[in-house]
């Protein structure tokens, strides 16, 4: 399968060969979501973010399986954030959170995006909430009531 070949080429460090193979394949099969997604990953992992964005977008326009769609939405949102397209990142990550509400990674990347957009209070609240929901650390769990209370009140002063 072509995706396995692309992964093997990347593993061998033959990135340009993998990209060339992928783009040649996509000329004849432009709607192969799995190959579009793998091609996006190839570009993304090798600091070719603008090209990665195009491939992620194209992959999302196809019928991807649930896990591939989830990963594509997260990767696209993350890449948008990394290149400073914060509103695009916000929108994409919101779609991801609505379609995959139990996948916590969306919330963390969303919080980073909110930080970039200047909404630091909500960003911190999301990070604290997800930390409390997912931690096994007893020293944090011990203070969960206080942390839950303060998560949305970081700027308040209590006299």
TrEMBL record:
<protein>
    <submittedName>
        <fullName>Tetratricopeptide repeat protein</fullName>
    </submittedName>
</protein>
<dbReference type="Pfam" id="PF12688">
    <property type="entry name" value="TPR_5"/>
</dbReference>
<feature type="domain" description="Tetratrico peptide repeat group 5">
    <location>
        <begin position="35"/>
        <end position="154"/>
    </location>
</feature>
<dbReference type="InterPro" id="IPR041656">
    <property type="entry name" value="TPR_5"/>
</dbReference>
<dbReference type="InterPro" id="IPR011990">
    <property type="entry name" value="TPR-like_helical_dom_sf"/>
</dbReference>
């Amino acid at each position: 399968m072509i995706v396995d070949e692309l992964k093997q080429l990347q593993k061998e460090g033959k990135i340009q060969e993998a990209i060339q193979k992928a783009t040649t394949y996509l000329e004849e099969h432009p709607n192969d979501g799995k190959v579009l997604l793998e091609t996006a990953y190839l570009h993304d992992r090798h600091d070719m973010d603008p090209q990665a964005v195009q491939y992620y977008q194209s992959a999302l326009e196809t019928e991807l399986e649930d896990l591939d769609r989830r990963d594509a939405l997260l990767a696209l949102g993350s890449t948008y954030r990394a290149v400073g397209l914060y509103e695009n990142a916000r929108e994409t990550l919101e779609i991801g959170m609505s379609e995959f509400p139990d996948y916590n990674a969306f919330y963390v990347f969303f919080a980073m995006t909110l930080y970039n957009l200047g909404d630091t209070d909500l960003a911190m609240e999301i990070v604290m909430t997800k930390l409390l929901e997912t931690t096994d650390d007893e020293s944090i769990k011990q203070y969960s009531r206080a942390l839950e209370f303060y998560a949305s009140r970081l700027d308040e002063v209590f006299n």
